[in-house]
Every structure is written in C-alpha cells, then in structure tokens.
Amino acid sequence: MMTHEETMQAIKAGNIALGVEFGSTTVKAVLTTEDFKTIASGSYEWDNNFQDGLWTYAVADIWLGLQTAYANLQKQIHDNYSVAITSIKTMGFSAMMHGYLAFDKNNQLLVPFRTWRNAITGESASELTKLFNFNIPQRWSVAHLYQAILNQETHVKNIDFLTTLAGYVHWQLTDEKVIGIGDASGMFPIDEKTGAYNQLMLDQFNSLKSVQQYNWQIDNILPKPLKAGGNAGHLTEKGAKLLDPTGHLTAGAIIAPPEGDAGTGMVATNSVKKRTGNISVGTSIFSMIVLEKNLEHVYSNIDIVTTPTGLPVAMVHANNSASDLNAWSKLFAQFAKLIGCDISTSQLYQTLFDAALNDAEPDAGGLSGYGYYSGENITAIPEGRPLLVRQPDSNFTIGNLMRMHLFTAFGAIKIGMRILEDEQVLTDNIVAQGGVFKTPIVAQKLLSAALNTDITVMKTAGEGGPWGMAILSLYVANKRTDETLDDFLSQVVFANEKSETLSPDPIDVAGFESFMTRYVAGLDIELAAIKTLPSQKRKE
C-alpha cells in the first residue's frame, strides 16, 4: 500500500484513475491510485421523477450529479492531501443499464430520458422476442424504440442517435459515440463471435414494415460496441469543463468504454470468466451467471447479455429490491429521533438486521409483502404498490418485519433463478455486492438461504460499480500485451483480496421456501392494489 506521501505525489502527477457510476439513487465518483486503492470518493443523492406516466431523470440533474460528486471528491482530496487534482491518467463512466435516450441530428434530446424502470413496452418486447427468437426484456433500448414506433410517436422520425445514460455521458465528455459491449447488450442483442450487434436481428428489425417508414436504419443510430480494454477516446476540453467547472482539470485522460452497472458489478466482484456469478442488490436486484453453453430455451425472465469482454451471461433482473427495506429503516430512524435517541445509520441497520437474524422466526412469522415501487417484470406486475401483508395470527415483531423485508427483496429474483437451476447452469461461486452487505453477515446469510447456495462477500463489497469502472479504466491504460481482463482481475487486482463465504442454513432455507409460497400466492393482492389504488403523480 502506498504511503501518504506517495499517494500525494501520485495525485500531483496525475497517476490516478476516476470511476463514476450513475446509480438509481446515487451518483458516486471514486478516485483510486494505480494499485487499485480508493483514496477519495464523492456522491450526489438523486431520485427519478414520475412524469406523465414515466420514470425519468432531468438532463440538468445528470450534470449536476456528476459535477457535485466530483467536487465532493476533489474536496476530500484537498482536505486529506492538501493538493488539487489537475490531471487524471484514466477514467470511465457507468450507469444503470438499458433505457432510452434519443437525439436528433442537432444533438437535441427528443423526449425525456426513459429509464429501465418503465414497464411500458410489453407489446414491443413480446413481438421482438418472437421475431428474433431471443428474449427482449421490456427495459432494453430496442424495446423502448419499437414501442415508440408502435405508439406512432412523432419524435421517432427525427432520431439520429440512440444511447444509454452511460453512453450519453461518455459521448458528451469525449465526442465519441461508442459504448461498452456489456452496456450495448442491453440495447440490442450481441453476436458473441463478432463482438458486434447481431446482424441477422438488425436486418430483421430493419425489414419490419413499421420501421421502413423512417429514413434511418437501426444499425446507423446505435453506438459502436467496444470490449473492455479498448480505447474509447480521451477527455476533451469541453468534457473537462463539464466534469470540473472550476477549470482545474486538464483534458487528455484516457477513457474506457462506458459500461452498465451490471458490467461494473462483474468487475468489482471478479466474476467475468465462465462459471462465475455475482448478484447485485440495490433499488433493483440482478444476478449474472457467465455461461459455459447457451440455454436450451428462450425465457422471458432470463436476459442474455454479455460480460465487458463479450462472453454471454444469463441475467436475472428484478426491478424492485431494497427500496422498501430502506423506507422502513428510515421510519425507525425517524422514531428514534422523536424519542431523542441519537443513532447512526450504520448502528440503525446493524440493530435492525441483527433482529432479522436473531429475533425472528425462520419464515418471518407469517408476514409477507411486496416492495414494488415500480412494475415487476418477473412476476408480471404492471405497476408498483409497496405492501405489507399480514394475517391476524401473524407474529408481527421487528425481527420478523425486517426478515420479511430482506426476504421480499430477494423474492422476485428467486423465481428467475429457479429457471437456471432447471437448466442446470453451473457456477463455481456467487459473489454478492451492494449496500445491504455493508452490515456484516445478515443479508449474506439470508441471501444464501434464498438461493440455497454459497454466497461470498468481498472486502470491497461496498465499493461497487464506480470502483469497478475505475478498474476497467486502469485495464485500458496499463494492460500488458494479450493480457485478458480475467487475468488482470485474478492475478493483479484481486490477488490478495479477502473474502468470506457463507453456506445456506437448512432452517433458513425452509423458512424462505415457506415465505415464497405466501409471496407467490399473494400476487393477486398486489394486482388488486393497483386496480383499487390509482397511481398518483409525484410532486416535484
């Protein structure tokens, strides 16, 4: 590990790497030295808005988030090392995958950013899945595009460029219309052999009568996919000012291909080679299993995406996970404040999580619930209505309540993972990451029970996507000839990584299965809530 003086000199010389990730609730920037150690971080809390029936983020908030996170990082560096950041060797930008950002030939955004959270493309996703014989989830960019065509939206005729959030930020900072292949695989299916979009499917899409009315073809409006290690451009003067409006940062940094949060999660958990897997828990939850062979069938709950190097991955993605868990935790924090109890966030979560482990029944005391803030693709629920469900004889305790919230955070994805079990998809290890794992043991133990498999949590579990993006940028800048990303991660980055693996407890496994029986049986309650409680537009 570098000394304080060595780190200060590295900052002065610009021998540092920046990774930024635009998550669902936080924009986070991480600065590392070339030995992969985080030396500063900055963040900006944001949230999507529900406008005109769609989940979106304002473009102004994208740049405010980036600049605020970077400014907070700069301040931390100044406070800790008494130096200013004037140059950065390499950097990269990642974001929540999928979604829809469409621009005209004047680079003007045609409609507000449509995020992955919008479950509005059922018709197009179904039609394209049949056309391609390949699952097209509702979140994917091509599903949003085709739905806009089916809806006869007038903006479609003016599309000149279509990209993701990560691709948009990268484009503005580099003038390059490229994208990491993992993020690209959430826009349109990828051909593993060529490392490009699947040509047959491009042709099939362009041949659709409803598409032929436009003067563009889909292959001409998508960003170019690049594998990890490819040079995706450099920070321009304009880009440097967008990132750092103070003007201290100079242009010229090498920038890695922009990736989705799934790709950075694979990197941050060293899960990019075949038979490895990881699971990321946050606002949404998704597991990624790198496949040895193709699946036998097409499944609506299994997305086939790629690693940052282009290997096929079976992705199980649920739109909803820990949001309601966090909401209830905040409620307890408010109560603590009302009674004059000063408790830190980490203490709060530790106390509540410990109750879920030590003061709860295996099946959460008969409690059930749905942390659905938006529609849920896996369970075919079109809209979100967070619900707590209990019967008169349920044992309503804090321990059971918190165990239920952890269980329901894993509920939808369990349904999808059962498909992979039936397909006999094999993994050597599943590594978990996300904020819930910052509290030791509890979420890891209950996730192990939910999936009935060993779960590993690394020391870097809390670092997550922005750190993974910084690592990808260092791979671009420092890789040796023919060094694969797998070798770079296993032999260099994670050579001395500490981790802990927990195996499933049979009692917890049985308890979770009992919970899942109630969870599946009660989905009609969620549908009834949607019918009887109309969606309300959120106030700004």
What does this structure look like?
The structure is a single chain. The strands form seven sheets. This protein has a seven-stranded mixed sheet, with helices on both faces. The radius of gyration is 23 Å and the shape is globular. The chain has a domain at 323-409 and 505-532. The chain contains 19 helices and 23 strands. Helix 10 crosses helix 16 (464-478). The protein is α/β, with parallel strands linked by helices and 540 residues long. Helices cover 39% and strands 18% of the residues.
Rg value:
23 Å
Strand tally: 23
**Any low-confidence stretches, pLDDT <50, length ≥5?**
none
Q: Please give the largest β-sheet.
A: 7 strands, mixed
- Mean pLDDT score, rounded? 94
Helicity range = 25-40%
Spatial arrangement of strands, main beta sheet: 17-18-16-15-21-22-23
Question: What structural category do the secondary elements indicate?
Answer: alpha/beta
Number of helices: 19
Keywords: Kinase, Transferase
GO molecular function: ribulokinase activity
Domain Carbohydrate kinase FGGY N-terminal: 17-240
EC number: 2.7.1.16
Keywords:
about 550 residues; alpha/beta; seven-stranded mixed β-sheet; 19 helices; FGGY_Carb_Kinase; transferase; Ribulokinase; FGGY_C; ATPase_NBD
